[in-house]
Amino acid sequence: MTVDEFVTEVSSISLPNVFNPYRDVCSKCDHPASPILRKQNLTLFLNAVLQRSARSIWIGRDLGYRGGRRTGIALTDEFHLDALKNTLGVFGVVKTTVGNDPTKERTATEVWKLLCKINEPVFLWNAFPFHPFDIDDPLSNRRHTVEEFEYCRHLLIEIFEWLQPATIIALGADAEAAVLSIGRKCHRVRHPSHGGQSEFARAICSIYALPAAVT
């Protein structure tokens, strides 16, 4: 499967109470071209990291409503789009939502503090690559269901077959369970949200032999 075929497959998926940023338009945050721009962002990200032969992959759980739902890129909010260029060599990504001020997300903020210190490309993805939300509250976060994960399992498998990563980081128990379910081993680290920032930073510093001072 090529990058374009993969992005087409991802953008074709529609599930109840799940926002697919590559096909859906948010009535509060988007303009009509938003999903097209997020597809472009994802394509640029995939091509750049694959071309650089990334040997590390960080897996989150789902897209957050303040992060990947808006940008189309896992573990990345609007505030850190420029960091994709400076750190991973991803050029051309754009803000896809209405308004001038970029939105920040807690998880993305902590993730990018560390990514900016690692001197190698890192691939970012989620066990469930969309934004699941509570009924009647599209700007909420919930855990994806087992059925939702199974529906998208083939996408996670495809990512690992592409990369064959030497280092796999799972952010939290749900991400770890997803990685193990497709037969891969990983380093499980504390998810950086809800008070886990320090533990997350210490674990990443240890895995990548970074100075503890970056925490």
Structure overview:
The structure is a single chain. The chain is of the alpha/beta class and 215 residues long. Helices cover 40% and strands 12% of the residues. A 4-stranded parallel beta sheet has the order 3-2-5-6, sandwiched between helices. It has a two-stranded antiparallel sheet with strand order 1-4. Strand 5, helix 7 and strand 6 form a beta-alpha-beta unit. Helix 1 runs antiparallel to helix 2. The longest helix is centred in the N-terminal third of the chain and has 18 residues. The model has no long low-confidence stretch (mean pLDDT 93).
Q: Give me the CATH architecture, please.
A: 3-Layer(aba) Sandwich
Sequence of secondary-structure elements: HEHEHHHEEHEHEH
Bin the strand percentage: 5-15%
Structural class: alpha/beta
Q: Given the structure, what is the number of helices?
A: 8
Q: Sketch the major β-sheet.
A: 4 strands, parallel
Order of strands, main sheet, comes to: 3-2-5-6
Low confidence ranges = none
Q: Termini, distance in Å?
A: 39 Å
The total of beta strands comes to 6
Count of separate structural domains: 1
| CATH hierarchy, class | Alpha Beta
Annotated CATH topology: Uracil-DNA Glycosylase, subunit E
Principal-axes shape call? globular
Tell me the CATH superfamily: Uracil-DNA glycosylase-like domain
Radius of gyration: 16 Å
Give the proportion of residues in helices: 40-55%
Q: Give the rounded overall mean pLDDT.
A: 93
Compact summary:
The protein is α/β, with parallel strands linked by helices and 215 residues long. The chain is 40% helix and 12% strand. The strands form two sheets. Strands 3-2-5-6 form a four-stranded parallel sheet, sandwiched between helices. A two-stranded antiparallel sheet has the order 1-4.
